[in-house]
Amino acid sequence: MSELIYKSAAQLSESLAKKEVSAREVTQAHLDQITKVDQAVHAFLFVDTEGALAQADQVDAARAKGENLGPLAGVPLALKDILAQEGIPTTCGSKILEGWRPPYSATVVKKLRAAGVVILGKTNMDEFAMGSSTENSAFGTTQNPWDLTRIPGGSGGGSAAALAAFEAPLAIGSDTGGSIRQPAAVTGTVGVKPTYGGVSRYGVIAYSSSLDQVGPCARTVLDTALLHEVIAGHDDYDATSINAPTPPVVAAAKRADVKGMKIGVIKELSGDGYESGVSERFEESLEILRSQGATIEMVSCPNFDYGLAAYYLIAPSEASSNLARFDAMRYGLRVGDDGSRSAEEVMSMTRAAGFGREVKRRIVLGTYALSAGYYDAYYGSAQKVRTLITQDFAKAFSSVDVLVSPTTPTVAFPIGAKSNDPVAMYLSDVATIPVNLAGVAAMSLPAGLSEGLPVGFQIIAPAMKDDRLYQVGAALERELAAKWGGVLTTKAPKLSSSAGA
Amino acid sequence: MLTYEQIIEKYEPALGLEVHVELGTKTKMFCGCPTEFGAEPNTQVCPVCLGMPGALPFVNERAIESTILIGLALNCSIAPMSRFARKNYFYPDMPKNFQISQYDEPICTDGYLDVEYETPEGMKTFRIEIERVHMEEDTGKSLHVGGATGRIHGAEYSLLDYNRAGIPLVEIVTKTVLGTEGYAPQIAKAYVKELRDILRALGVSDVKMEQGSLRCDANISLSPRGSGILGTRSETKNVNSLRSVERAITSEMHRHAQRLEAGERVVQETRHFQEDSGTTRSGRSKEQAEDYRYFPEPDLLPVAPSAEWIEELRAQLPERPSAHRARLQQLWQVPDKEMAAMINAGVVGIVEETVAQGADPTKARTWWLGEISRLANEREVEVAEMPITPKDVAEIIALVAAGELTDKLARQVVEGVIAGEGKPKEVIAARGIKVVSDEGELVAAIERAIAAQPETAQKVRDGNIPAAGALIGAVMKDTKGQADAARVRELLLGLLA
Amino acid sequence: MSRISNEEVARIAHLARLELSANEIAELAGEMEAILGAVARVQEAAKSDVVPTSHPLALVNVTRPDVVRPSLTPESALSGAPASEEDRFRVPQILGEEA
């Protein structure tokens, strides 16, 4: 039954519908894989063995009764530990929430459960989604299944690694500045950041409220589309969620046709910082799209050069406020309450003990940027850059259907290589950040390997046009898969239980 | 120590009043938890109002409507676009450690309220300008345990109940109020009272100061007359009644003057009003202004009420209390001075309700302004808070008119109702109050009195009418006060003619 | 770009209720300097006539009717509390507003 873990969600869906296999068998196969390889990969912070099997049994019972089940019923999924799942440990990669079991579930989690998706457990992440390598997790980093000495990307490295290690066919991530897309790129998987507001944020622990979005991750474009349709939609517990039908992403993924489409290459997202292997895979993918009937043109988005700076003001500012609630009073860690200290002291001690270095760094940065006298120069100016970037996108989209770039300038770097240089680390997000600032939609899918490590191709679509991502992505994927004999992850090393980092 | 008059001669007070109103919406400002008063602790909470990770706010549409109504009633401009902002500071009663409020884009601005206050020259009107009206959320309630008095100071720990956290609050801020010419305390009280009446008439809040659904913070400063520079202000909180508004401001004016006279600086700080002493006590120093790091609330979208909606709401505004009062004055033919007294005592509404129950306006007025006000003053409460209703008073007036009670007996019934002995009919029954109307009984009592005081009776026969008083008194005593004194007099004089 | 002093970082840390050691403060001061140096360029792009974006969505008036939604039970609400007593959250002594 171990072949089950190599199947796509679409294939599993078909087998389940035909009753060729049960949800329990599928779930057990993936739990076994987790047991086998997660010691080495460390993608999971919590595996809900009992709960997952119970969910699987529910699906099997429903199917036996002849109930009408959705396409993903019985398919397992790994959930980034940033989403609240009632009764299940939810840490957000932080000591300050270690052991916390939420009394409620995120809307996305409720939707997944209603669709019969089996949630295997919670995946590792950079603490409070702050990072590009998952090295900032308070519970140890995750290893990239392609090379266990390298980072799996961040902040959602756990979800991406779980996919690449065949521990789950589907995963949920969150993306604030590239936290779905960059891990997807360095692990050879597919990840989408939907249009801002396309997926509910209720129950998603907030990092930067105006940039955060939850999104689907998988090994194929179609699987990602299937998951996208389950989780997207208006939520009347999230005032920032869009009240309009979800773009037809599954149909677009099946159509997979770029004939007549206009594709814009963003001039500013190329050049010196980009490894030659990354640039080459990117150019090759452009060639493929051209050969499939798309026209490629160069566009300039000059204000993108200010994107990184604007992001590293807006995100920490919003985060400094969002993380204020972690104060030892109502939930989470409490340190220093020996009866002699005031609430204020206990708050300060707890936050010092419970937050890691990067989180403290961003809280201090954000607090400073918002403080009296500095607001206009920093946060205020950054919000103006945001307007300019949005205008750049609007102008570009007036002449092309989608924009493209390499997802991230480098392949997976070694664990520890950038952890002492925050600014160098921040550069990983230079191509992904402008997307979040404008609230548009973007996908990363595998473009190939460079020195044996995955390279990602980023597609960007205007707000509410998420389907274009899938249309173009599926076309590219099909051609590349033809070349490779399957999607890129079929080339990923098969980890054994003896593999260690 | 200067007298109040001396203070006013030397100094000009500048006032600033901040009133917080708890709206009477069914649910909280940003979540659907109920807002019932007095519920068991933490039974009206959810991830949103507890500030749990991942929770998001969602604006209550009725709260916006109520705020616009308040703004319109205060003659404000309603902003075509306003935003929520986060006010960031740490405090255990604030679950998110930021309050969602409004900052530089409030929903209502630049209004005014004309208030009436009494002077020796009669009622005058003063216009208080309103700076802004905006929406925000209330905090949880803390119980301090272990200290001597249940207060924060000296407490060992605190217990938090978040039922109140997230209840919609509207903050009404005045512009700096100048030119009150010695009437600052009265004008402030009149302002809060008028505001309260308007809010009640709008139906947006139950405005009970004692329950905290209407809170007032008073800012006051003094500056030497003619100096043109505003003095340092102090803010007084914990002002829980209309009376306290007046007392707090008066007390602060004295305190500021004392310091200034002594050549000392007035410290910019928050003070707390003490009901028992009528003075204020120092609280947290505000020398260092808190850095709230306001920024637009990213989880909420701007509020942009349409012009049509605003006009619909404007049309819904009830008659302004002052216009209403003017109309009643006309209707009841009340002289100015008496009307002023009614307004000051806060009994206009009550009298109106009494009249609605069938009572004569003048009689209603007399009772509420007279006997009941007197008793209220004795107990140091507002007339409105007295445990006697307009219906009760109307009933008593009717009984007097029907001759079943005399004025004197009626006063006993009023006392009884207020003492908690029950409704008027119950008090009458329990105390055995009855007008002795049987002429035979009266005559018998009169004859007994005449027999007991033959000399006095003779005086009356001889033309000394005032002397009858002693005989009437005796009859009243004999009948336990239940005789109609006027009828007794009539009969007595007839007998002694 | 003026130096971010240790005192400034200490003030910020207090505003953010983070107890930091003197070492941490000094290190952060250096890091802030570097980061702020890198991000200050947003001021170049931000001209006075550009309207700041606080929302990617061009939505307004998103409200809900004044209708009750389910609450948590006190047990659920308090389930993660570090300390509780009589259905209330128990917290250490609060440095109050009153002196």
TrEMBL record, chain C:
SUPFAM superfamilies: Glu-tRNAGln amidotransferase C subunit (SSF141000)
Listed InterPro entries: Asp/Glu-ADT_sf_sub_c, GatC
Region of interest called Disordered, as start-end residue ranges on this chain: 70-99
Pfam families attached to this UniProt entry: GatC (PF02686)
GO biological process: regulation of translational fidelity
UniProt protein name: Unannotated protein
Organism: freshwater metagenome
Lineage: unclassified sequences, metagenomes, ecological metagenomes
